[in-house]
User: What shape does this take?
Amino acid sequence: MKKLAFSVLALCCALLFLSFTVQQDNPDAIVGSWKNGEGTGVIQIYKNGDKYQGKIIWLKEPNDPETGKPKLDKNHPDKENHNRPVMGLTNMWGFKYTDKNEWTGGKIYDPKNGKTYSCKMSLDGNNKLKVRGYIGVSMIGRTDNWTRQ
Assistant: This one.
C-alpha cells in the first residue's frame, strides 16, 4: 500500500512538473495587454510573422495638456513623425522567442524622449513581464516590470 501511495504521489509530482514546464515554454505566453510599471500606458503585444511586437493601446493621459488634442510623437528624432499620434503607435518590434521564457533581439521606442533602445523580455510567472531596455550591452540599462491586464 505504501508503494502504491508513493507511486501515485511521484506520478502526480511528475505531471505537475511537466505541465509547469510545458506552460513555461510557450512562445506566445507574452501575447496580451500589459500595463507598464508607471501605470501610465498599456501595450498590446502580438505576434507578427515569427516575431513579436507591441503597440500602445491605452494612455492614462491620452491628450496633450496644452492643446487638449491627442498626444503626438513630438519627440521623435525624425520630424516627419511629429504629427503621428502616440495612441496606436507600434513601440516594440523584432522580438524572437529564444527559450527559457525569454524574448530577445527586439527594440523598444520611448515616445517620452524619442529614443529607441535594444530590448529583451522575460516572463516572471504568468502575469509579470520584465522588460529590459539597454544601449549596447544588457548590463547597462533599465528593467521595467509590467503587469498583465
